[in-house]
Hints:
This protein is α/β, with parallel strands linked by helices and 365 residues long. It is 47% helix and 16% strand. It has 13 helices and 13 strands. It has helices at 15-26, 38-48, 56-60, 75-85, 99-108, 154-166, 176-205, 217-222, 230-239, 241-263, 267-284, 307-317, 347-356; strands at residues 7-11, 30-34, 51-52, 65-68, 90-93, 117-118, 120-122, 143-146, 170-173, 294-302, 324-329, 335-343, 362-363. Helix 6 (154-166) links the parallel strand 8 (143-146) and strand 9. The radius of gyration is 23 Å and the shape is globular.
Amino acid sequence: MTSNPERVAVIGTGLLGTSIAMAATRAGCEVRGWDVDPAVAGRAAGLAGCSAAPSLEEAAAGADIVVICTPIPAIPAAVARALAAAPGAAVTDAASIKGRIVAEVSAVVDPADLVRFVPGHPMGGSERSGPEHAAPSIVDDIVWVLAPTDETAADMVERVERWVSRIGARPVRMLPERHDRLVAFVSHLPQVASTALMGLAATEEAGEPEILLLAAGGFRDLTRLAASNPALWSEILRANAGELAAAIDLFAAGLFALRDEVLAGDGAAIERRFGLAKEARLKLAAKPQVRAGVAVLQVPIPDSPGALARLTAALGKGEVNIEDLQIVHSPEGGRGTVHLTVAATAAGDAAAVLTSGGFDPSRLA
């Protein structure tokens, strides 16, 4: 089998599956997709520039790589069918939990075929769903966890790693149990917190109908994930219940500790807590090669067509690279604020080119 996989099958063509198909097509792979809903598969094929197969088996036949992107309950059976239909393929999945998937796949797959199963989790996505919202950029530079078991053959892991790198993502190996513990904190808990906060505001709105009118950028940023697919997230959270419960307990303990510091008027403790969080967030906002130092500029912009394009064009002309960018819309409308992250060494140049372009930047960090 080729060391540079050319033939790829994507099983399940929702947002993530279609985005993966787009990225693979862009990389020059021959891609076939299949979905339990033929209409969805057809739309995905048109968007991704690949072919839609009439069955899972026909999509997988002859593939070098098969990526299972179905809902969690359907993954074990889909993996088993793909392994049988493509006896030379490495089969991987995209589920956001790994321990349960490994156990359930092991229960339905012949041990001789488990050597070709490479549990995976591309850490990309969106609160939206469906192939219409897919984009190859969803895969670009994301961490793609591979969680091989003791049964997984080394050459199969290496094949999937090479392919993941080829389509633009960053493969990272991790034990299934460690993966589930970490994603409980950085993926599942943020979804829970966003949903709980939005639910609290919605409940309060019953007695205070103007509460959401006061929702500024911070509230909007924190509750963005609350617009996610309810059925999908119900599956994910229940599948990782133990690790998620532990993460919620630790998060709640942190909230109560902060509450107590506020009630006690302990300004030093509050500032210390905020300072540690700010330092960690600034490191998160930048790519690894610039994490030694970043700066955040706040730039007011009008809420009008072309405003953001003028800002980015000014930075491009000044040869300033954008490490991260967020837009906070004013609840009153008509204006917004861009939070722009650049390398610390480029902060002065960024401020200068923005000022010369008619903007009024101020440095936050």
